[in-house]
Structures are given as C-alpha cells and as structure tokens.
TrEMBL record:
The keyword tRNA processing does not apply. Pfam families: HATPase_c, HisKA. Its main location: membrane. The keyword Repressor does not apply. It catalyses: ATP + protein L-histidine = ADP + protein N-phospho-L-histidine. Residues 199-413 form the Histidine kinase domain. This is histidine kinase.
C-alpha cells in the first residue's frame, strides 16, 4: 500500500472554490446529505486526506452517514453507545489528532489495518450538544497534523453543525432524539402505537379479505367452477396465506429483543448461503433474480438462516419499487476485513435524505409512496437489526443509471 504522511499545507484555493459550489447548492434548494457529501468531497483533496467520514450521533450511538475516498467502505457502519471509540469521540477537545492504531475498538483496528492510522477529528456541536463528528483520515506516516489542518477540520465541523441548526435535511436518522437535542428545542414525538395499529390493521386486512373471498367462492360455487378456476383460487389463497405468515413473522420479530433461533455468529460459506437463499425466493422474485458470484469468496461470520431472511427482504423491497419483470441483481465480493453482498434494482431509486430513514420502523418515504407502494415499513428495519446482531452493517445508495443498491457487509473469517 502506498504510504505518505500528512501534507505540509492545506490547498485553500481548492477549498474556497469547492465551498462556493456548496453555497450555490444551498441557494438552489439542496440540503441534507447531498450538501454534506459535497462538503466531504471538497475537503478531502484540499486537506490531502485519503478519506473523509461524518458520523451522526443519537442516544443509541453513532452511524457513518457520509464517507468518501478510502473511508467509503465505512458508510452505514454503526458505532454503538457502548463502543470505546464513541466515548472517545464525545469527550475531550473538540478538534484533535487521533492515532487509530492506539485505539482499542474493532473499527479503529480495521482502519489501521487498511493503513488509515491517523485522523483529524472535529465534533459538530450546537449549544454543547454533539450532533456528529467529522473525520479526515490519513495513510500511515509519522507526521503530526498541522495547525492549518486542525483549523480547517474544526471550521468544517462548525459548518456542518450550522446545517443541523437549520435542520435542512438533517439529521438523516429518524429516531427523533437527535432533533430534540438541537439548540432551538424542537422535539419530535413519534406515536408508534397509533402508527402500528394503523399500518398493521391495513396490511392484515388485505390478505384476509382476499383469502375469505376466494374461500367463499370455492364453497358457494364449487360445482360451477372449472378445474382451472379451482386451482387458480387455491393458488391465490396459498400465496396470500404466505404473505400473511410472513407479515406475522415480521411483526413478532420486530417486537423481539434478539432474532429468534440464532446462536453466536459462526463461519459460513456466503456463496452457498446466497445460492440457497435465491433458490428459496418466491417464484416471481426468483425469475427476476440474477446471481453473480466470484470464483472464490472467503468465508464470512454470521447466521446462515437469518441471512436468507435478509436476502428475501432486500429482494422483495427491490421488486416493490421497480418495474415488473425488471432484473434484480445479486452480487458479492470481499476485501481484507469484510465480505459483502449487494442487491441492486432498476426502480425509482432512493433519495439521499432517505438512505437512513428507510431503516426506521414503519417508515416508507412520503405519504404518496405509502399509497402507491403498500407495506408495513418493517422489512428494512428488520434487515438492519438482523445484520447488526451479526456484527455487520447495511446501507443503501443510489444505483448508477437509476435504481437502488442495498449492500450488506459482514466480518470476514
């Protein structure tokens, strides 16, 4: 790996030119993640960094919501509240230089193994409340960060805090307490009980109505129906019963503290796990799915059975938001620390400001999406819970050319 120390000076001309573009984006109505991502893309070369990342904090911990360059693989990575690096980021000087090879947590170890052994970190704070932390990461070297780099990273952290203060598309996580902590005192109240009743009553009623209708038809008109009609009615009843069973599984799992039936994560053949999971997909999904696997894929650490559930949920979500019959592409690859698989579609895509909120329980885009794309909003919520219980992480991103890519990363054995 190419190694270099930190540069002697910051490219202020590039920084100012890039910042002008960001201001023009804001003046044109852009907000939230598009602006945050552009800020990181501008800052990385100006600071001579190998990668940039921003972690958004909530009471449950942090999550990487934007990343560029050599840090892009961390996108979606959680930082639990109990993680030592989380405590480290939330205390001490607001701007500082950190050596990842001297930190004790897993993420820091992975950064160090990739050669990213130094970073300049700035907290984004509003009236003493930390909403996130900005990270400029550098490849191995003995150089200390310059005063200029500390100042620029601190300034950019303050700029991001300012964006949070105006709440223009930020925070991107929808759990409310992040917003409640902001300086203007805005509190978000999420009445999950009423939402649960409204959503589930609708989703339960639909398959039950269809099953009852077809069952009544068979009972009342058996003799007058052809064999083909009877088989079709039985087929629909079976499909809707499967939908109902799957919905009940989701509801029960969403209320459970841990995914039932799984022991500690164990080494597994991810390629074989994906082949079996694709073979078990419902027929309509299986016909649309294409599986592309490398000749050799290292073993991952996880739960074979629940990964099948993850793939089913991601494929179902891809089919739901894409044209009928369009391909659903499933692929896999590995790096030195992780093994990942992706589910890609060619559908309506995901807006940057929704890539995190999509994993919230019961959330389904705007109200128009709920009418056009019915569902409980539990699928991606369960996917994230299952994957993170296996020490992995999952995130969404727009697909080049249109559509959405869902990527799951698991520890490599």
């Amino acid at each position: 790996m190419h190694t270099r120390g930190m540069p002697d000076r910051t490219d202020y001309a590039a920084l100012i030119a890039g910042h002008t573009v960001i201001i023009e984006m804001i003046n044109s109505g852009d907000a939230g993640l598009p602006v945050l991502n552009q800020l990181l893309q501008v800052a990385q070369p100006a600071l001579g960094a190998a990668g940039m990342a921003f972690v958004e904090f909530a009471p449950s911990g942090g999550r990487v919501i934007a990343a560029t360059g050599a840090a892009e693989w961390t996108l979606g990575r959680p930082l639990p509240a109990s993680d030592p690096i989380t405590s480290c980021l939330l205390t001490g000087p607001r701007v500082r230089h950190v050596r990842t090879d001297r930190c004790t947590n897993q993420l820091a170890a992975e950064l160090a193994e990739r050669g990213l052994r130094r970073m300049v970190v700035s907290r984004a704070e509003i009236a003493g409340h930390t909403v996130g932390s900005l990270h400029a990461l550098y490849l191995a070297g003995d150089d200390e960060a310059s005063t200029d780099q500390h100042a620029v990273v601190g300034y950019l952290g303050s700029c991001i805090a300012h964006m949070y203060g105006y709440q223009s598309g930020l925070p991107v996580r929808g759990d409310g307490p992040v917003v409640a902590a902001l300086a203007d005192g805005l509190a978000v109240v999420d009445d999950e009980r009423d939402l649960f009743v409204a959503v589930t009553s609708h989703e339960l009623r639909t398959p039950v109505t269809v099953i009852k209708g077809y069952a009544d038809t068979l009972t009342d008109h058996w003799e007058s129906l052809s064999e083909t009609d009877r088989r079709q009615a039985a087929r629909v009843i079976g499909q809707r019963a499967n939908d109902l069973a799957r919905l009940l599984d989701r509801l029960l799992a969403s209320a459970a503290e841990a995914w039932p039936g799984d022991g500690p994560p164990a080494p597994l053949d991810l390629a074989e796990t994906l082949r079996l999971a694709v073979a078990d997909l419902p027929a309509d999904l299986r016909r649309r799915a294409t599986l592309q696997l490398p000749a050799e894929l290292p073993r991952a650490v996880g739960h074979r059975q629940s990964l099948g559930t993850v793939l089913t949920e991601l494929a179902t979500n891809a089919a739901k938001y894409s044209p009928p019959g369009s391909p659903i592409e499933i692929s896999a690859e590995a790096d030195d620390q992780t093994v990942c698989f992706r589910v890609s579609d060619r559908g309506i895509g995901v807006r940057p400001e929704h890539v995190e909120r999509a994993f919230d329980r019961f959330w389904q885009g705007d109200s128009g999406d709920r009418r056009r794309y019915p569902g409980t909003g539990l699928g991606l919520y369960l996917v994230r819970r299952i994957v993170e219980q296996q020490n992995g992480w999952v995130f969404l991103r727009p697909r080049t050319g249109g559509g959405t890519v869902a990527e799951v990363r698991l520890p490599r054995r």
